[in-house]
Amino acid sequence: MIEQVCENNSQYVNFSDCLEAYTLAKPHEYRSLTLDAVRHALDLGGPKLISSAIVVLQKLVRDDRFHSKEAEEDEEKWMSCQVMAAVHGMENLSEDQKQEVLKVI
């Protein structure tokens, strides 16, 4: 995730400058990158990867860095919309895994 932020901010010369830019990123950007990984794990992963994705999802909901302090105008940047988009393909999950995802939502 950090590497992608660094690539998107190629004007930074060294790694510490890139990390500073990463800490200044907007919460919807954090969520977008993290939830892309969660979505892929839920869609394509095995049981262990899916379980890890659910843990990431649980931590994301609780971590303040992922919460916007101001209301986003674009609905696609809302946390609820981003999470729902990430978990849309739950048909390949076991019943227990589906229950855990639904608890997060």
Please provide a written account of the structure:
- This protein is mainly alpha-helical.
- The protein has one domain.
- The protein has 6 helices and no strands.
- The chain is elongated, with a radius of gyration of 15 Å.
Into which percentage range does the β-strand content fall? under 5%
Q: CA-to-CA gap between the ends?
A: 23 Å
> SS-based structural class?
mainly alpha
Low-confidence stretches: 9-13
Taking the sheet with the most strands, its summary is: none
Number of helices: 6
The whole-angstrom Rg is 15 Å
Helical percentage: 55-70%
Q: Identify the overall geometry.
A: elongated
Average pLDDT, all residues: 77
Structure in a nutshell:
With 105 residues, the protein is an all-alpha fold. It has helices at 2-8, 15-23, 27-44, 47-62, 79-86, 95-104. It contains 6 helices and no strands.
Output the keywords.
single chain; about 100 residues; mainly alpha; about 65% helix; about 0% strand; elongated
List the helices and strands and how they pair.
Blueprint: H1 2-8, H2 15-23, H3 27-44, H4 47-62, H5 79-86, H6 95-104
Helix pairs in contact: 3-4, 3-5, 4-6
